[in-house]
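Dear colleague,

Thank you for sharing your sequence with our group. We've completed the structure prediction you requested, and as agreed, I am returning the results in plain text so they can be pasted directly into your records. Please verify that the sequence below matches your submission; if there's any discrepancy, let me know and we will rerun it promptly.
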Amino acid sequence: MQTVTIEGYLAADPSILAAQSSGKKRASFRVLETARFRRADGQRGERTTGFNCICFNEAMAENYVGPYARKGSRVVVQGHVENDTWTGRDGAVHYDLRLVVEDLRLKNRREPGDGTKVPAGDDALTHPADFEPDLDDEIPF
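Please find the predicted structure tokens below.
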């Protein structure tokens, strides 16, 4: 499996959703990355690409992404790419790529919604110190 690393900004506040069957929580968010370049004629250009991301790790979603990640937060996301397929209301089949998050770093830390202070600085933690990933998480496909 190949690993992808993306650095960009959150397009909106992450959604923390619970799976209908198991009740396990997951985080869903979109990361925007902008590439700047020069065209052949010397004009500057830029291209913004959006990446749909999903984090199935319940502890990371509830204890890290939910309280600390906000629209505009600078993030570094690492994971693998999967195909996502669904049928719309009109019966048409839709296809999309999504990044399944394995690691997430917030580059600019903010206070969580409850007002608790969070250390600032460039040495952003990958996750809180008491966080232990559950490697046996079920992936609901």
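Summary note from our side: Residues 116-133 have pLDDT under 50 and may be disordered.

Kind regards,
the structure core
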